[in-house]
Amino acid sequence: MLKSRKDVERVGEQTKSGLSRQKVRAMVCAGTGCLANGSLKVYEKLRELVSEKGLLIDLDMTQDACGEAHSGESTAYGIGIAKSGCHGFCQMGPLVRIEPQGILYVSVKPEDVEEIVEETLIKGRIVTHLLYHDSSQGTAVKTEDSIPFYKRQYRVVLANCGRINPEDIREAIAMGGYYAIAKVLDEMTPDQVIELVNASGLRGRGGAGFPTGRKWGFAQGAKSCRKYVICNGDEGDPGAFMDRSVMEGDPHKIIEGLMIAAYAVGADEGFIYVRAEYPVAVTRLKKAIKEAREYGLLGRNILGSDFSFDITVKEGAGAFVCGEETALISSIEGRRGMPNPRPPYPAAKGLFGKPTIINNVETLANLPSIVLKGDSWFKSHGTETSPGTKTFALAGQVVNTGLVEVPMGFPLRDLVFEVGGGTRTGRRFKAVQIGGPSGGCLAEDQLGVALDYESLRKVGAMVGSGGIVVMDEDTCMVEVARFFMQFAQNESCGKCVPCREGTKQMLALLTKITNGEGTKEDLELLEELALAVKDGALCGLGKTAPNPVLTTLKYFRSEYEAHVFEKRCPAGVCQALKSYSIDPDKCRGCTVCQQACPVGAISGERKRPHSIDAAKCIKCNTCVEKCRFGAIIKE
Questions:
Q1: Residue 463 and residue 485: Cα distance in Å, rounded?
Q2: Lowest-confidence region among 261-270, 340-349, 357-366, 369-378
């Protein structure tokens, strides 16, 4: 039980001492992506082989559950094997980091484990074929910080992800965890904490970018016998996994951030709202909260102060709209997740009618570093109006998919081509969807935009939660807009008419256009509807739902016009607009395609060129799949 700031520091030093008994340590990524690729089998086999050799040493062998050193075994040395959170480089998982050398092995399989144990963990040699190979230079890269994916990143929120065991509070404390709340309780008043956060310029990382300190000030000034703080971990954007990775990889940082927020506004109860589709995150958060209680870091009179606080994990059912503050509050209260008109804002009247502060995972995870390092340090990264860093989830047709953290204002072009490695298909870059379904699609001409709130807003996009989907030239932008509109329509709670009916009608128009049935009037109506929904929807999610439509109309209008006026899909994606014919110079008259066609649209004599009746063809692509000579032309 930790009763003071000195106790926290003591556990941190003792844990560092215990970890130093591990002369070499293998950290196996146990984030969701690597787990899906079999990293747990790699971890289990590593432990098995090292244990068989009598070389395994865990932190528990040098300390008890409260961080106290064991006198009898504290001089033991050996090999440590531990699970970690997401390393970020999802494309190359499962990942294994060897410390203290900093060696990173990629795409590790269970059959590689014996070689890792014998060569690296015991003999200290590098297994070259397991290193990342930089195709641009044709060389094997030994350490993480030399890999292009990591080179230009600056990690604050993700600093511990991949470097600690997220299921052991002692490792979090050894990396500075709970030092910030100890400092706050020991040295600062709630007013001073809010002043610090205001001075740092920290803005909400959930999408809107509202100044965090100002929001806290509203709740602090509200008169009420009860106040609440909520961590919004309801990450529902397609292609986004930033919050999930932080919750899985460093849950104690989120708990500490929530504690700092609670102290500042005068709350004694908090909630972490996370969707049930994140089972790993839910399990680790619950374990972290249990550990924090056992150590006296949650509960009554924390660290000998007058501050009392506890946290409950609330699992959501996965409704996208519950990422909106008032809908999230409704869900915690046991009601259907639907937004409410504002004002009153949650800071004045929120959960159970009491003043409530809601911050997303990344916002809270920034707070410990701001407290320990100061506002000037935080503002030394990013831009003047958007200080600090931002995490982004790179997905889609990009070489390096994964989780990155870069300073605000980082060029979009560099993120896609330097960190992301460009398009993985080798085809020309076409667009990037940024900010999830509430964001916008930007073309190659907009790649020079800086990744900050103001710059993205000017080009019709938004930072959002940080999901980035890269698309190449084989992508149909009209179909992309239809996909995101279908998502928005499916996830609409239906409370307000503009969103409920507007998204439905926009989806119908987009479907009509991709089916080759669109008209000039449909294009005009689509844009008119999009602007009406943007202006009239009740909540922020409804207001931003038209963004993919508006930005694709702005930057890719020629594709819409090709669909409408030429009845042609330039990318060859829209099934209804495809046309099939047979190249007579390549056709051998083998009749395979003719026999395979389900509607008898192909005719011709054996050993003579065949033809396709366009009126009968249902564009099922069977002929293309069956032809061995590449004679089918698809346009």
A1: 19
A2: 340-349
Instruction: Measure the CA–CA gap between 325 and 329, rounded to whole angstroms.
Output: 6
- H or E segment at 330? helix 325-332
Write out the two tokens for 388.
Answer: 């600090």
Taking the complete model, does pTM exceed 0.85, yes or no? yes
More confident residue, 76 or 297: 297
Tokens of 203: 């803005």
Contacting residues for 599 by C-beta, under 8 A, at least 6 apart: 616, 617, 618
Strand runs labelled E in 347-462 = 356-360, 389-396, 402-407, 429-434, 440-443
Asked which of 282-286, 524-528, 575-579, 609-613 is least confident by mean pLDDT, the reply is: 575-579
Cα 186 from Cα 179, distance rounded (Å): 10
Q: For residue 396, give the amino acid letter.
A: G
Beta strands in 283-422 (DSSP E): 310-316, 356-360, 389-396, 402-407
Are the C-beta atoms of 392 and 149 separated by less than 8 Å? no
Q: Are 483 and 514 in contact (CB under 8 A)?
A: no
Torsion sign (Cα): 630, 631, 634, 635: positive
Listing from the earlier edge strand, what are the strands of the sheet with 103-105?
78-84, 22-29, 96-99, 103-105
Check whether 208 has a pLDDT greater than 90: no
For residues 527 and 340, give the distance between their C-alpha atoms in angstroms, rounded to a whole number. Answer: 27
Q: Which of 48, 41, 110 is nearest to 79 (CA)?
A: 48
Question: What is the distance between the alpha carbons of residues 175 and 596, in angstroms, rounded to a whole number?
Answer: 63
3-state secondary structure of 297: coil
Residue in the block written with tokens 């109006």:
385
- How far apart, in whole angstroms, are the C-alpha atoms of residue 29 and residue 84? 5
Q: For residues 624 and 571, is the Cβ–Cβ distance under 8 A?
A: no
Residue type, 184: V
Please give the Cα distance from 599 to 595 (Å, whole number): 10
Query: For residue 180, which of 267, 300, 302 has the smallest C-alpha distance?
Result: 302
Nearest to 518 by CA among 577, 571, 570: 577
pLDDT above 90 (res 74): no
Q: Which two tokens stand for residue 233?
A: 């971990």
Contact 70, 62 (CB under 8 A): yes
The whole-angstrom separation of Cα 349 and Cα 356 is 7
Structure tokens given for 242 = 């930033």
Radius of gyration of the chain, Cα coordinates, nearest whole angstrom:
28
Segment 483-492 shows an average pLDDT of 91
Q: What is the band of 71 on the pLDDT scale with cuts at 50, 70, 90?
A: very low
Other Cβ atoms less than 10 A from the Cβ of 410: the count is 24
Rounded Cα–Cα distance for residues 232 and 86 (Å) = 20
Which letter does DSSP use for residue 498 in this model? Answer: H
CA dist 632 and 104 (Å) reads 46
Q: How far is residue 223's CA from residue 130's CA, in Å, rounded to a whole number?
A: 59
- Could you tell me the end-to-end alpha-carbon distance of the chain, in angstroms, rounded to an integer? 70
Angle formed at CA 259 by CA 360 and CA 319, multiple of 5 degrees: 30
Task: Tell me if 158 sits within 8 A of 25, measured CB to CB.
Answer: no
Strands (E), 102-145: 103-105, 132-134, 139-141
